[in-house]
Write a structure and sequence with these properties.
Helix content: 25-40%
Radius of gyration: 19 Å
């Protein structure tokens, strides 16, 4: 590989499909490829931050241990109706597996950026300095799941609404070669997944979350009903809307600024909140890189 080339890695959005980024990063490392610049959108920002902070292995171990019930515990319906994700639990998760509250982007060895969207103006926001946690959380604030994040007098939401695969950010930060990961390349046009009914062995969960967890784990929000004429569930409708938007934006952005290497794993069967399928997603990431070895070696001059 040409050691003088500065390599950028653009990690795209894609909710639970984002665990695939872990497999891609680790497989690239086995080829001796370590990016100098890491830019991420939404879940790509989260996995990219874990990598930059040296916490990728820890995140992978957690992801591969997640169960359906663990996913349900991250969800909450609060009276403000600002989002479904339980903020305190999510904050604890970010601290445990991504970065601490005091960790700053500019203090890390690798160049890092997270993409979010200014909710008022619709402008694309690049977080290249400041608290890592705030940058990641802002980039992941998917409308309907997460509340908007207040940052520098702006309300920020998911970066996938403006730049789902941040190739342009990598180039702007100095990358000579950009490896991009698009997790949404095959999702539009796919039929909603049929319900596979999340089963919970023991529904006697104490406290106020008991009935909520039962509701979620019965898939009233997670999955489409068996009847094709049934109205799609709330999260299915949100997911489909976001998928369509991000697919169209990605196609447009890529046409004007294509990456040097595109990695597009087929992940349409993994649903919005199927975080418990991490091992499968990670393996698909590794396999996708293996299929690209010849192209990667050619582009990088090996």
């Amino acid at each position: 590989m040409n050691d003088e080339l500065k390599i950028g890695l653009a990690l795209g959005s894609g909710s639970s499909r984002g665990w695939t980024h872990i497999g891609i990063i680790k497989e690239l490392a086995t080829l001796g490829i370590t990016p100098d610049i890491v830019c991420g959108t939404s879940v790509g920002a989260m996995v990219g931050a874990a990598y930059v902070m040296g916490n990728l292995e820890k995140l992978e171990n957690w992801a591969c241990s997640v169960t359906r019930l663990d996913v349900a515990k991250f969800l909450d319906i609060n009276m403000s109706m600002t989002g479904f994700v339980h903020k305190k639990r999510f904050h604890e998760f970010l601290n445990d597996y991504i970065a601490g509250d005091d960790d700053l982007i500019e203090d890390q060895e690798k160049t890092y950026a997270a993409v979010s969207t200014d909710m008022e103006s619709g402008r694309e926001i690049w977080s290249t300095e400041g608290p890592m946690i705030q940058a990641v959380w802002s980039s992941m604030s998917l409308p309907g799941l997460f509340p908007a994040i207040r940052n520098d007098h702006r309300w920020l939401i998911d970066g996938g609404l403006v730049n789902p695969v941040p190739v342009s950010v990598c180039r702007a930060l100095g990358a000579d070669v950009v490896i991009a990961v698009n997790l949404n390349g095959d999702i539009v046009g796919k039929h909603f997944q049929k319900s596979s009914a999340l089963k919970v062995e023991n529904n006697s969960i104490g406290g106020k979350l008991s009935e909520l967890v039962k509701e979620y784990t019965n898939l009233s929000l997670f999955e489409a009903k068996e009847d094709d004429e049934q109205t799609p569930g709330l999260l299915n409708a949100i997911a489909a809307s976001v998928n369509i938007t991000q697919d169209r934006i990605t196609r447009s952005r890529m046409a004007g600024d294509p990456p040097d290497i595109m990695i597009s794993p087929k992940l349409s069967d993994i649903g919005l909140l199927e975080l418990y399928r991490a091992e499968e997603a990670i393996n698909k990431g590794r396999e996708c890189v293996q299929r690209k070895i010849s192209e990667i070696e050619y582009v990088l001059g090996e």
